[in-house]
Amino acid sequence: MNQSRTTIKDIAQECGVSLSTVSLVLNDNPRISEKTRQKVQEAVRRHGYQPNQQARGLASKSSRIMSVVVPNLNHVFSDVYFGEILNGIHDRATEADYKLLLDVANEKFLANKDYLNIIRSRRADGMLFIASSIQDTYLRDMEDLQLPFILVNHYYPNSNLSYISVDYKQSAQLAAEHLLSLGHKRIGLIAGTNTYTGLDFRDAFLAHCRQKGIPESDLPWEDGGLQWSQEGGFQAAKKLLERRPDLTAIMAANDRMAMGVISYAHGQGRRVPQELSVMGVDNIPSAPFTSPALTTIKHDLFEVGRRSFDRLHAMFKKELSDHQEILPVELLARESTGPAPSA
Q1: Which CATH architecture fits 168-299?
Q2: What Rg, from alpha-carbon coordinates, does the chain have?
Q3: pLDDT value at position 2?
Q4: Using CB atoms within 10 A of its CB, is residue 282 exposed (0-12), middle (13-18) or buried (19+)?
Q5: b/e per residue 224-244 (b: at least 16 CB within 10 A)
Q6: Residue range 133-152, pLDDT digits in tens
């Protein structure tokens, strides 16, 4: 056989076995006898055969590909939030010898119902859908079909869709407790309202502050926009502080919006944290390097990605059915928060 053109069919013919047997050997399936395994492996080594993904999946019915879908947002692939999750997914996919099929949930993707067709056509073994919005109700189609599918860092209330997410309600409680412990009683909130996790954070934060005696009138909030961006945080901070210049703290529902708040405060000559404490959520890699270093709630997005791939892979292999998992969070107190200034 010519080494440069060796195929799985060539290996099977030389060894006197079927194509599926060669594929089972390549996938380390224990059903194959040791004698046959050694024969096939020797032929593979002798010819320097490199199996392609399609050949390796013949016996296992696996494409060795996982679909990953991200929202249709501006510059989504340069966004550090999505980047951390994608890095975690890629890390585990590489270890499992999988490739990733990456798509954006744009109009064409939705109109063609690719979110269904990719799995139905076996182009991928399963789908990870990262941080969908409350508008993506079409994803409920996945409930009845019971396809390998996981929402990543999001969920739908009253739904059986599988998901893995950090605990946004715990994040809100830790954030509120931190600011209240520093004596803050007039706290602005910048929230994202286009995801259920974002709504959870907003509602839990405000509720915890009210439970501790802060009147609703001293808890103004603004929507940070669909992109959850620094620009959104900047504009929301402007609105909050023009309306309530007496605020002593602003809580932003992610680090990028918090950085926008700090930028606006600096531009107005308001010192952070001496005159205004600022806090974020996620602990993105740049959070410790802001000026001042950003106090935040740590969401291990890399681990969210890793676990999402692991659970989806287990669902494809029928080792796991519906799966709903909440991951713990952690307060990281840095220099952007401090005691409330005296009246």
Answers
A1: 3-Layer(aba) Sandwich (3.40)
A2: 25
A3: 46
A4: buried
A5: bbbbbbbebbbbbbbebbeeb
A6: 888 888 888 887 778 999 99
Is 0.85 surpassed by the pTM of this model?
A: no
Is the CB of residue 198 less than 8 Å from the CB of residue 172?
no
Single-letter residue type at 44: V
Residue type, 155: Y
| Domain ranges within the chain, ordered by starting residue | 3-56, 65-166+302-328, 168-299
Class of domain 65-166+302-328: alpha beta
- The H or E element that residue 241 is part of is helix 230-243
> Cβ neighbours of residue 300 under 8 Å, at least 6 residues apart?
166, 327
Nearest to 89, CA basis, from 342, 332, 306 = 306
- 281 closest CA partner among 182, 194, 201, 179: 201
* Domain 3-56 falls under CATH 2.40.37.10: no
Instruction: Give the sheet arrangement for strand 295-298, strand by strand.
Output: 221-223, 187-191, 249-252, 277-282, 295-298, 330-332
